[in-house]
Design a protein that fits this description.
Layout lengths: L2 H23 L14 E3 L2 E2 L15 E16 L2 E8 L7 E5 L3 E8 L10 E2 L9 H4 L5 E8 L4 E6 L5 H6 L3 E7 L9 E10 L9 E2 L4 H5 L5 E4 L12 E4 L3 E10 L4 E6 L3 E5 L6 E5 L1 E4 L3 E8 L4 E7 L2 H6 L3 E7 L42 H15 L1 H4 L17 H5 L1 H10 L1 E2 L2 E3 L2 E3 L2 E2 L6 H12 L11 H8 L3
Parallel strand pairs: 1-3, 3-6, 4-12, 5-10, 11-15, 14-22
Antiparallel strand pairs: 2-5, 3-4, 6-8, 7-9, 9-10, 11-13, 15-20, 16-19, 16-21, 17-18, 17-20, 21-22, 23-26, 24-25
Helix pairs in contact: 6-10, 9-10, 9-11, 10-11
Bound molecules: copper (II) ion.
Length: 482
């Protein structure tokens, strides 16, 4: 062989060698199982509505997840307690963020104070039971197993210990994200939201510690349908936030156990939805379906300020069972995109309509009666916030030209029996309150005599009113007059 020939072979070989070195950096593996892992790291776990730092360009690693199961009492809504079973102390459980090719070493720890064994089925696992078979763990023990993340996507995890439905119904679910090579596109804000349905012995709103009701769960008759484990987890001060111009990504899951979610944000259109948490992207979506045991990644840019309401568009769940959250957006208005109210004109084609609530059937008083003035005020405020607040507003200020104020109301303070009658029977026609005429319709309110006494006592003892105390006997006297 000639010398020059040899040199040629050598230079080709070294070129191949160099190329393969460069290649190594961006090798695309057909099979995710072949992606090598180097180094290990402790996974960052977060409580809802927060999510861990994006994976970005990091290499696949051995990722150590330590998840502690805690059975603990929490509050479903004002005055209603519930014993939740949790992954990491929250419902939904801690958010786990991985990338394709990670080798996850999963430590499932069952706190010694817990009463029951549990396990975990992660939908991101390829293997029997999604890990459930290897993770069944008694109180005071820790089980370890490992798995490789083969498929990118957003996955539900949940407890799969019998009775499975009961463990899920008590809050044992969460989300694990598997990002693709190179990570998801970077956005300004990311949040973690998970819907769940709850079944309690008492009816919705019935106070006290409420045990789980198996029969209602089997019948799928939920008392509460909520985001992030309780009524109000994403409203008021707990609302998620963004600024005008920012892009928002919501990781939304549905733990079930029973109901499918029609997830919708009032006043916002989803620019992109990773349907069912997978690769397929739908654009310009109004409402996306999130199956029980499924998830979706939702992205949109916020263009105008305001409060955007997150709901399950099976709408009684939102306004009567708790599936309601808020996204508060701050920033400059854009009148081109949304004008706000331009005019308020009179429109009376057929005179004022008359509406009434169904009047058949007695209202069952399921409530524990208030034992003191303080309890009357407390219970009355809860009833006010559920029933009266939408029209008469938080501070009893009413809505100009539509709903009369209750604060410093001469109409209210002049006649207690008349006020009781209005709550009992509703009111239609013109009245004058503090010198202003109102002509709207108040429907009959579905409140028990106890609740009417409480709510009126609350109203009379708020906002500069006459501080009267209304009793159940007073309500019944007015009720029996007709
Ligand atoms: Cu469990």
């Amino acid at each position: 062989m000639k010398h020059s020939h040899l040199l040629f072979v050598f230079s080709i070989a070294s070129m191949l060698f160099l190329t393969s070195c460069f290649d190594n950096k961006e090798t695309v593996y057909d099979n995710a199982a072949d992606i090598p892992v180097n180094r290990e790291m402790i996974a960052e776990l977060t409580s809802p509505p927060h999510v861990p730092t994006p994976v970005g360009k990091r290499k696949a690693k051995k990722l150590i997840v330590k998840m502690e199961i805690l059975e603990k009492e929490g509050e479903m809504t004002d005055g209603v307690k519930y014993v939740y079973w949790t992954f990491g102390g929250t419902v939904p459980g801690s958010f786990i963020r991985t990338r394709v090719g990670d080798e996850v070493e999963f430590h499932l720890q069952n706190h010694p104070n817990n009463k029951l064994p549990h396990n975990i089925d992660l939908h991101a696992v390829t293997g029997p039971g999604g890990g459930a078979e290897s993770s069944f763990v008694a109180p005071g023990h820790e089980k370890t197993f490992s798995f490789k993340t083969l498929n990118p996507g957003l996955y539900v995890y949940h407890c799969a210990t019998a009775p499975v439905g009961m463990h899920i119904a008590n809050g044992m679910y969460g989300l694990i994200l598997v990002e693709p090579e190179g990570g998801l596109p970077i956005v300004d804000k990311e949040y973690y939201i998970m819907q769940g349905d709850f079944y309690t012995k008492g009816a919705n709103g019935e106070r006290g510690l409420q045990p789980f009701d198996m029969q209602k769960a089997v019948d799928e008759k939920a008392d509460y349908v909520v985001f992030n484990g309780k009524v109000g987890s994403l409203t008021g001060d707990n609302a998620i936030t963004a600024k005008v111009g920012e892009t928002v990504r919501l990781f939304v899951g549905n733990g079930g156990p029973g109901l499918v979610s029609s997830f919708h944000v009032i006043g916002e259109i989803f620019d992109k939805v990773h349907i069912e948490g997978g690769d397929l992207i739908n654009k310009n979506v109004q409402t996306t379906l999130i199956p029980a045991g499924g998830a979706a990644m939702i992205e949109f840019k916020v263009d105008v300020p305001g409060t955007f309401i997150l709901v399950d568009h099976s709408i009684f769940r939102a306004f009567n069972k708790g599936a309601l959250g808020m996204l508060k957006v701050e920033g400059q208005k854009d009148k081109k995109i949304y004008s706000g109210e331009l005019r308020d004109d009179i429109y009376l084609p057929e005179g004022p309509g008359i509406q009434s609530m169904p009047t058949t059937g007695e209202i069952v008083a399921s409530e524990v009666p208030a034992k003191s003035f303080e309890e009357q005020i407390e219970f009355g405020k809860q009833a006010y916030m559920q029933t009266c607040f939408a029209c008469h507003q938080a501070e009893g200020q009413g809505v100009p030209n539509a709903f009369p104020p209750l604060a410093k109301s001469d109409y209210l303070n002049a006649d207690v029996d008349r006020a009781i009658g209005v709550v009992l029977h509703g009111l239609t026609g013109e009245i004058t309150v503090n010198g202003q005429k109102y002509n709207s319709v108040m429907t009959r309110q579905m409140l028990s005599p106890d609740e009417i006494a409480n709510v009126l006592t609350y109203v009379y003892n708020s906002w500069g009113n006459s501080k009267k105390v209304v009793t159940k006997a007073m309500v019944e006297k007015v009720k029996n007059r007709k």
